Amino acid sequence: MIAFLSQGGYAFFVWGAYGMTLILLVAEILFLRYKRRTILARIGRLIRMRHSGVKQ
């Protein structure tokens, strides 16, 4: 198990690459959630503006 974790002396680079990939994937998910929320809010405002401006 120790040999696997040490990765033949390159553990810092191997696990660092895995860690950076994980961090970037989580950041991407959070960014996409934020953008989705922003877009939905804009669409909601646009719909409300169109409905309030229409005379029936």
Automatic annotation (TrEMBL):
One of its GO terms (cellular component) is plasma membrane. It is found in: Cell inner membrane. It comes from the Bacteria. It is a single-pass membrane protein. The chain crosses the membrane at residues 12-32. Its main location: membrane. Keywords: Cell inner membrane, Cell membrane, Cytochrome c-type biogenesis, Membrane, Transmembrane, Transmembrane helix, Transport. One of its GO terms (biological process) is cytochrome complex assembly. Required for the export of heme to the periplasm for the biogenesis of c-type cytochromes. Belongs to the CcmD/CycX/HelD family. This is Heme exporter protein D. It comes from Thiocapsa imhoffii.
